[in-house]
Design brief:
about 190 residues; alpha/beta; Rossmann fold; disordered C terminus
């Protein structure tokens, strides 16, 4: 798996792209990524995971939390799922200000040559998180890609999410958290809130 980090100029030829925060690469994320990888193989194009580093919530100080899994472990999972390219897009004040439509046109279309964009129905990107599923779909014909929306995976009667996993940990339901995460939680004794 090729890893692209600490830069914003990169180019791939013909790709399927999964967009998301992928905090912890929980079972819901794995479902989305597995769907994207299979779709890319069927089309004979590169499979790309596009994520932001650090996450927007951490960058803007809305979350003082450590990752559920280390960066290294997340990369191992992406590789094991068959991802060809991992883009850890540097999230800075400058990149956070990229307008959503510019993000789709310049990054997803021009740089990654996306033919397929795979995401959840709650995807958000671009300045202020204004980019969404409706924008992706509205630009698809013009830019020559299709959008595949993957339904959320449910566990214990609700969609799996990093927020639910953290809540389960705080409330002492670590077994439930691990079941949604898909593996043990690798936390260091840092005193940071999860």
């Amino acid at each position: 798996m090729k890893i692209i980090a600490d830069l914003t100029e990169f180019h791939e030829q013909r790709s399927a792209v999964a967009i998301g925060k992928f905090d912890g690469v929980h079972l819901g994320h794995r479902k989305l990524i597995t769907t994207m990888v299979a779709d890319a193989k069927a089309r004979a194009i590169s499979s790309v995971v596009f994520t932001f580093h650090p996450s927007p919530a951490v960058f803007f100080g809305m979350a003082k939390q450590e990752m559920l899994l280390s960066d290294e472990r997340q990369r191992e999972i992406f590789a094991a799922l068959g991802v060809d390219v991992l883009v850890e897009f540097p999230f800075t004040a400058e990149t956070a200000a990229i307008p959503a439509e510019v993000f789709v046109r310049e990054i997803l279309s021009e740089q990654l040559h996306a033919e397929r964009i795979v995401c959840g129905d709650d995807v958000s990107f671009g300045a202020g998180g204004c980019g969404d599923l409706a924008l992706l779909e509205s630009l698809s014909t013009e830019l020559g890609y299709t959008v595949l929306v993957v339904d959320k995976l449910e566990a214990f009667g609700e969609p799996v999410s990093s927020t639910r996993i953290r809540r389960a940990i705080r409330e002492g339901r670590e077994e439930e958290a691990c079941a949604m995460l898909g593996e043990p939680i690798a936390r260091e004794k840092t005193g940071k809130e999860i």
